[in-house]
């Protein structure tokens, strides 16, 4: 969320255990949205107003402490260290932190295969690959799936006569039919890791991304791990609207989800978007392969336009698995800059949601009763101005976007039926013994 801030907004990281900078001063940015980090771990976001004059480090420290001081104290307490009384311009002094999650994995790093599906966006693909070059984790390889490309640019970059070289193994696959789920399924044959980490070609990954993913699997025994998604920039009003519509962040606290747990919300487990998003998700490779991957009739590039990630999350929960949201696993997403793109996205999100719900019923008809019992909470969630879904809408938020998403939701079941017909020759995911 960015309450009360107008674009352009400066985004970035603010390390609290290092000297704080003087912020702004050139008049370019009207505000700042900074990820406060301690010992490398995210503790919260700081929202600041900026003017023509720079914001000195001392004043910055005061404002930062007012917003995230409680989270900093909690972090120190979890590390078994006496918390600081406040934050100064010089930052928090380094201290021993034997239990801190900021410590890298020392031994036993499981092999991770990173899967990136792309289509006609070579510049964006190069950006995410460049960010992987800064990865602290070393036991990984990358599979790039070129999904129904209209040009040879990506192929030339990765498998041409003079392909670019990377400090990690890169495999290139090409599929002739569009569809994000189809592309991800094609990648499964090239997976060499114990864990499959999936991201998109319009993100940049944090250097600690895979370390946090591996740690979450190791500490929780999870089937699936999702992570924090923050904006890479907030330069335009359309990008700000993405955040007001809910964005992709799910907070700064690790959460564990299972079918056996008390329902955290009335709509659990069907509000699968609460678990995370497809731009930052990882699965145990054997679990994903045993289920046949993703439903090919879902996802961007198909008539369903989305829902592949949500359906996979629901399958984890309903099959008895554990899903962990790990905020230390961070990627930054490049939102669409133009309003027309936001209009298409709002409709597409609605279609994807409707398709996901339809696909979940097709796969497990026994879920119908549970869905019907949640009808009233679902209506409140969708229409209530103070619901989690709508609370971020600021005055002036375009009602057109709300109605386009709702129209897409109603279209979703028909879009999924069309998609099932189009991909009828592709096997649907196997349910397996338990899900």
What does this structure look like?
The protein folds into two domains: 1-103, no CATH class; 112-354, Spore Coat Polysaccharide Biosynthesis Protein SpsA, Chain A, CATH 3.90.550. The protein is 34% helix and 19% strand. It is built from twelve helices and twelve strands. Strands 4, 5, 6, 7, 8, 9, 10, 11 and 12 form a nine-stranded mixed beta sheet that branches. It has a three-stranded mixed beta sheet with strand order 1-2-3, covered by helices on one side. Helix 3 (153-159) links the parallel strand 5 and strand 6.
| Radius of gyration, taken over Cα atoms and rounded to an integer in Å | 22 Å
Number of helices: 12
Summarize model confidence as the mean pLDDT: 93
Number of strands: 12
Residue share in helix: 25-40%
Oligomer: single chain
Biggest beta sheet summary: 9 strands, mixed
Q: Which fold name is given in CATH as the topology of the largest domain?
A: Spore Coat Polysaccharide Biosynthesis Protein SpsA, Chain A
